[in-house]
Amino acid sequence: MIYFVTHNKNKYIEAYKEFKENGIDISWIEMEYPEVQGNDNEFISRWSCESLVGQVNEPFFIDDTGLYIENLNGFPGPYASYVHDTLGNSLIVRLASGSRAYFKTVISFYYKNNIYQFSGILKGIIADVEHGGHAFGYDPIFVPENSNKTLSELSIEEKNKISHRGKAIKKFMAFLKDNSIV
Ligand code: ITT
Ligand code: NA
């Protein structure tokens, strides 16, 4: 069994569905873990992953996701979680509607004393208003490239096909299969 450590239920559901569609079962370890400050997603994700070794079942992975808004010089980037909780979507829209932006997910997978990383990016635009649908993080204010809907208006399956997380998971699954781990 492969374990996904996150306290974010929406992340887990997206990942669970993507793996399941490919015949792989994953299991949820619901816990919050420490995050180091910094500008480099790969480094932050690796640091958190290392901090969990010996604390949780193995093999396990984590997902670190950032939102980078062009008109705000890449802010909030790796501080996406803190900014979402403090400013919230409505203030981000006031500051940056119409700006180009992208999500980046870095998965760190701990397996037999090594850490393997897989990343994915989704480019898009900050919406003019907050939209309905499911309310996962920044989804209600992010319009992906070549779309006229926000991520919150897509089904989980539709989002997985194009998203930062979906892309990182596809690379991850290819690695698992190539190395006969699943
Ligand atoms: P864990 O670290 O426990 O996995 P988290 O919610 O703290 O959960 P992140 O630090 O990676 O995860 O997320 C940063 C912020 O970005 C946070 O506010 C999330 O809600 C948001 N976020 C992450 N993935 C997202 C996605 O696919 N769509 C919209 N918002 C997302
Ligand atoms: Na986090």
TrEMBL record:
Single GO MF descriptor: nucleoside triphosphate diphosphatase activity
Sequence intervals crossing the membrane: none
One Pfam family from the record: Ham1p_like
Keyword tags: Hydrolase
Any single GO BP term: nucleoside triphosphate catabolic process
Record-level GO cellular component terms: cytoplasm
InterPro entries with a match to the protein in the record: ITPase-like_fam (IPR029001), RdgB/HAM1 (IPR002637)
NCBIfam families, per the entry: RdgB/HAM1 family non-canonical purine NTP pyrophosphatase (TIGR00042)
UniProt family annotation: Belongs to the HAM1 NTPase family.
Name of this chain's protein: Non-canonical purine NTP pyrophosphatase
Taxonomic source organism: Acidiplasma aeolicum
